[in-house]
Design brief:
9 helices; alpha/beta; globular
């Protein structure tokens, strides 16, 4: 699904990523660990070009999304993102937060289809009957787009037990509730992969479990996930592959049993001795 080839990222003279090569297959649960400042979050943000790579390629579903000629917003629709600090819109209710992206994208696509049909009608005036082009089929409207998005949003809120919070504002939610809403907001776009940037690090310890439980459910359902985390127990239990990044490079990549039970890289051994 994602093929990262010689990924590099620099901020001025500071080289944060120095030649990352990794393949992410459909259904992978990949946990990324490493010390602070090692490049983990930058790696994740480069995957959906929130940070523009300095060099290398990111092939996502057959397209190099690191190419500046590519419309990255089209491909971001298939790549969800969950942030450390939730990034919910505080001036919108919970359900409005979840509906925002599906409605925006749906209306954009509807507008584009209508604009295309106007052009087809104009050009058809100058074509023979045999050369006329068919109009783009439009099977929805603005009201239906909003109604479908609301129905899906409520189904997602029911799934996480927060249907009663649909019309409240994020400021009234606990940290764990905010992060669960942020996760289902990402799910609302039916993504191929979800990127998690330390999703539990801003939570109180008692709220971590409810977020990790939701992520475990997604893993069981086959959602492809790339997770930057400090939760070693979660990585050991859920991941099918764990990466260790330090100094902007992948120093070790292995299944969790081998990664934690028989680490080979000396720097990884040192790191694990301090965190386990």
């Amino acid at each position: 699904m994602i093929d990262v080839i010689n990924l590099q990222k620099s901020f001025g003279s500071n080289k944060v990523l120095n030649g990352i090569d990794i393949k992410i297959e459909k259904g992978d649960i990949m946990c990324v660990i490493g010390p602070s400042g090692s490049g983990k979050s930058t790696f994740l943000r480069c995957l959906n070009c929130m940070e523009d790579p300095t060099g290398g390629q990111i092939i996502f579903n057959g397209v190099d999304i690191a190419d500046f000629k590519v419309d990255i917003n089209i491909h971001r629709r298939r790549m969800g993102m969950v942030f450390q600090h939730f990034n919910l819109f505080n001036n919108k209710t919970v359900i409005q937060n979840i509906m925002l992206a599906p409605v925006t994208v749906g209306l954009q696509d509807l507008k584009k289809a209508k604009r295309t049909n106007v052009m087809i009608k104009l050009t058809n005036l100058f074509r023979s009957s045999r050369m006329k082009k068919d109009l783009v089929p439009i099977t929805t409207n603005k009201a239906e787009i909003k109604a479908t998005a609301k129905e899906n949003a409520m189904a997602l809120l029911n799934r996480i037990g927060l249907a009663d919070k649909a019309d409240v504002y994020p400021s009234t939610l606990s940290g764990g509730q905010k992060q669960r809403v942020a996760i289902v907001r990402a799910l609302a776009m039916n993504p191929d992969v979800i990127l998690f940037d330390e999703p539990t690090s801003a939570l109180d310890p008692e709220m971590v479990g409810e977020v990790l439980d939701l992520m475990k459910q997604l893993a069981k359902e086959g959602m492809t996930m790339i997770i930057v985390t400090h939760e070693m127990g979660f990585a050991r239990e859920v991941a099918n592959r764990v990466l260790f990044i330090d100094g902007g490079q992948i120093l070790e990549s292995a299944p969790p049993a081998e990664f934690f039970g028989n680490p080979k890289n000396p720097r990884l051994k040192e790191f694990l001795s301090k965190v386990l």
